[in-house]
Amino acid sequence: MSNLFIFNSDLRLRDNPALSNASNNGEALAALFIINPQKWTDHNESDLKIAFQIEHLKRLSKELDVLNIPLKLIKADGIKDERKKIVEFVKTNSISEVFVNKEYGFNEIQRNSYLDKEFTKFNKKLNIYDSSIFEPNSIRTQSDTFFKVFTPYSRAFRSKLISKKPEIIDLPKKQKTKNFESDKIQSLEMSVERMNILKLYEVGEENALTKLEKFVENKILSYKEKRDFPSLEGTSSLSPYLSSGILSSNECLFKVFEQFSEDEIGVKTWVTEIIWREFYKYILFHNPRVSKNLSFSEKYDDFPWSADEDNFISWTKGETGVPIIDAAMRQLNNTGWMHNRLRMIVAMYLSKNLLIDWRKGEEYFMKNLIDGDFASNNGGWQWSASTGVDAAPYFRIFNPITQSEKFDKEGNFIKKWLPELESVKNIHDPSTEERKQTGYSEHLVDLKLSRKKAIEVFSNFSK
Ligand SMILES: Cc1cc2nc3c(=O)[nH]c(=O)nc-3n(C[C@H](O)[C@H](O)[C@H](O)COP(=O)(O)OP(=O)(O)OC[C@H]3O[C@@H](n4cnc5c(N)ncnc54)[C@H](O)[C@@H]3O)c2cc1C
Question: Span 298-462: which CATH code?
């Protein structure tokens, strides 16, 4: 019997339930990765993230080869074509059973339900596994609905953790025979500039695991104190690996609890962030509106967002005249990653001070982040724009200057990305004179007035 495992956001051998089960089940197993540029464009996936995945796959393919599991590539042209191409592949290659891990986006759920129906017609089987820490239907309120607020969700999550500590499923087994030769993987074509950014991120599952282990060993205990300061390397930087599934959330908790309990405050805080990640996937699963480019809360469908394209472009370029925001956007544009505190600050500035539709920011982030993750990105944006689940109340708007003074006190982060401000006295908000001398932009909008306006617009809209 010949089986097929299809890769999605689970580009790993370890802790991969569908791949592990597929390897137990027959004589030969192939793995499939779908090259689908149209889908990547439709989903706003960044070239960095795709290139990172492709480079990672080259390494993964070698590891799979050792297990006699060839990696096949097929090309598809968009979401609908992808499912047809999978069916064709299964038919023409006499595959008996197909194995996938569940994905929670609307398109992915539809794809699997199409495959299931099609396969049944010609006697093939689709086996779907859940690779999240806890399956989304297994965490419910006492009245048997799904949670919309993080704190009670995380409480329920933690009480499940007490009764079921994370375990890692067996690695895939070596296959008796090999039914194909692996396909050759071509790197994505990118500019030299983008290639240089890509070099900042090491591919490979072993590297991701080592990074996790080092974080747990050396940094997790000080995570709570350091995580909000962008000039310190106080967070794990694991998001590119988690978003492409090179590492699973489950693996993160497994490694943490091998060494620590949640009595340590740093550990507890980091585990909470992993639970946030699971929460946003849970929200995506339980609320298909989120996959359809709509606010979680229906009420915001007709919100009067500003259409000021010039302001939006200044924000993307890091030319708003607010140093912490401009430094953050330059970090994103130059590295494909942004610190969490800064993601919140820039998202709130765009959706409140500039009153620009959060979906434009969400799209820009996805197109530029190496760790773009639909659920977390959407969740983070809707939290900041006050349109999501358990979101920031619309009247609690961060003042970016105060945030800057608090989280980048010495201005070290700002100076790194805005070297023109290296020697100004008022690093968090240069004076008019300092702006003139250094050529640094004037404020795009007055922070106090724009804050007042945002509260008025939200308040009038909520009446
Ligand atoms: C507007 C906005 C957009 C965001 N977009 C993304 C995105 O596209 N992809 C993404 O992975 N994260 C996103 N986040 C969440 C968070 O900013 C990043 O996960 C974090 O900065 C990654 O850095 P790290 O790996 O060092 O995180 P750590 O602080 O070490 O946390 C460990 C892991 O926990 C998860 N995590 C941490 N914070 C959050 C959070 N607030 N929400 C959900 N998961 C979290 C991530 O997987 C992260 O890698 C976004 C947040 C905001 C406010």
Answer: 1.10.579.10
H/E run at residue 98: strand 97-101
> How far is Cα 420 from Cα 411, in angstroms, rounded to an integer?
12
Exactly one of 315, 337, 358, 417 is catalytic; name it.
358
Burial of 41 from C-beta contacts in 10 A (0-12 / 13-18 / 19+): exposed
What is the residue extent of each domain of the chain? Answer: 2-131, 132-168+204-286, 298-462
Q: Which of 198, 181, 177 is nearest to 189 (CA)?
A: 198
The Cα 112–Cα 128 span in angstroms is: 8
**Chain position carrying tokens 């499923």:** 169
Region 179-194: mean pLDDT is 94
Q: Which DSSP category does 371 fall into?
A: T
pLDDT number for residue 216: 98
The CB density around residue 365, as the number of other CB atoms within 10 Å, is 23
Nearest CA to ligand 1 atom 36: 273
Residue of minimum CA distance from atom 33 in ligand 1: 274
Contacts of 77 (CB under 8 A, 6+ apart): 36, 38
pLDDT tens digits for range 103-122: 998 899 999 999 999 999 99
The tens digit of pLDDT for each residue in 342-383 reads 999 999 999 999 999 999 999 999 999 999 999 999 999 999
Tell me which fold the domain 2-131 belongs to.
Rossmann fold (3.40.50)
pLDDT given at position 163: 87
CB of 242 within 6 A of ligand 1: the answer is yes
463 pLDDT more than 80:
no
Backbone φ, ψ for residue 256 (5° rounding): -65, -50
Please tell me whether the overall predicted TM-score, pTM, comes out greater than 0.90 for this model: yes
Q: Which of 69-73, 231-235, 286-290, 377-381 has the lowest mean pLDDT?
A: 286-290
* pLDDT at residue 165 tops 90: no
Rounded to a whole number of angstroms, the distance between the first and last alpha carbons of the chain is 63
Q: Ligand 1 centre and the CA of 340: distance in Å?
A: 6
Whether 197 and 48 have beta carbons less than 8 Å apart is answered as yes
Choose which residue among 244, 272, 277, 342 to substitute to test ligand 1 binding: the one with the highest number of ligand atoms within 8 A of its C-beta: 277
**Average pLDDT of the residues of the chain:** 96
Cα of 301 to ligand 1 centre, how many Å? 26
Cβ(369) – ligand 1 distance below 6 Å? yes
CATH 3.40.50.720 for domain 132-168+204-286, yes or no, is: no
